[in-house]
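Example record for the data management plan.
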Amino acid sequence: MESSITKNNYEEYLSVIGWLLSIVVPTIVYFFIVSTGTTQEIAIFSAILSAAIIMWIFKLVREYLPGILVVITCASLGLVPTNVVLAGFSSETFIMVFSVLVITVLIARSNLISRFMLNLLKKVPKETIWYDAVFFMSFAFLTPLIPSVISRTHLVGKFAANVLDMFGVRKHEACVVGTVTSCFFGASLFSNTFLSASLMNFIILALLPLQEQLQFQLMGWAKASIVALIVMLVAYSIGYLILQRILFKDRQLVSKGNQSKQSITQEQNQLIDKQLKSLGPISKDEWLSMATLAAFFIGMITFPYHKISPAWIAFSLVYMLLAFNIITREELLSKIDWPFLLFMASIIGISAVINYFNISELISSGLRGYIFDDSPGFLFTFFVLVTILVRFFLPIGATITLLIPVFITLSGLYGVTAWAACFTCLMVTDMWFFKYQCIFYTPMTDVLDEAGISYEEKNFQAFNIMANIVRIIGIVASFYYWRWISL
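Corresponding structural encoding:
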């Protein structure tokens, strides 16, 4: 009780400090920039942006609100043309992300994912290492199909709770951690290796130069990130096997006791059959999910032939889902992540304003003159270290907003593809060391807590640290691959 009161007092003091700084810092920033002889418009924008940064650092309001504040203020004061500051709302990226989120509602509503995984569990050997492989690879397979990492990890919580309950091992530490980590990192580790695997990827695509936006569509993105995908898959598998042997030497999803291997296999098959039977026959939602996904991906893959933008293909599918009342009005209002859509549009708009004022070019020129040598390797090391440092203070979206315009400009000065710089930043932003840094970890733990399933955080963190190392290995391997293919 006392610790809870202390925590509340601490958060209250922190909030007061944050609001004071959100008033003082913009004032200082404005007068400092004016004193350098810079235009009034840039000084005002910088002051507004600094207020938003303070709000992000101290978490004073919901994450999307500071970005909206910047966009509305810039538009109302006429600092830049409206088509610049509202670029996020008029881009095809906005249409694409909205459409994909609606399609995701249909997939999440059906039992397609659970049915798919349970059928796989029936076919593999009845050993925990094979089960872990099924969990990991199944959610990795779902990664490009469900673009919201938060939605995927929410599904992870529901599925892990059902599996642990099905096998009766919800109180077994080794089983809980093994199952949860396999599902969680399968759902999150490869979020940047497919364009459709993360909503942040679509934001990055919208910020790239036009030529690179066309180059790094679905197939172009996959080709450029293929080495990172393979290297991370191999490195994670090795690391996972090592940690399993160190932390959990003896782990079974069904207690052995005096049972023979044949009886254990039979018991597990019976449990899986019972769960499949409870799902019933393949439902209309499952058929519609498969048909919608097939139409969507066939449309994207055949883009070079029909020249219809993937965004409008996705939007046409959504229109049909809404027209035939497959997705209801209530689901559209409650299931779609509208705050993220506003946040995404504001980020694109802020980045457009930064480019309009050439702020990123001024910062990049200064950095090149005082910090860098001519080594692209040194440049990418700088990207990694700066992103890690900034992520201790800012959430993922705010980090992208501030760093990506500078990284894109720097990459141009060094003759490096802007996509490679952005991909590196994306990979590092998904690294986390403390729970407050990861917005997609909490949705899973909330579901597990509701189901009464708990585990030792230190055991989970051991796998998380290993996953962070795997991401760095993936970036290093990709760097040499990009040099080889002249990216």
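Summary line stored alongside the record: The first helix runs from residue 2 to 35.
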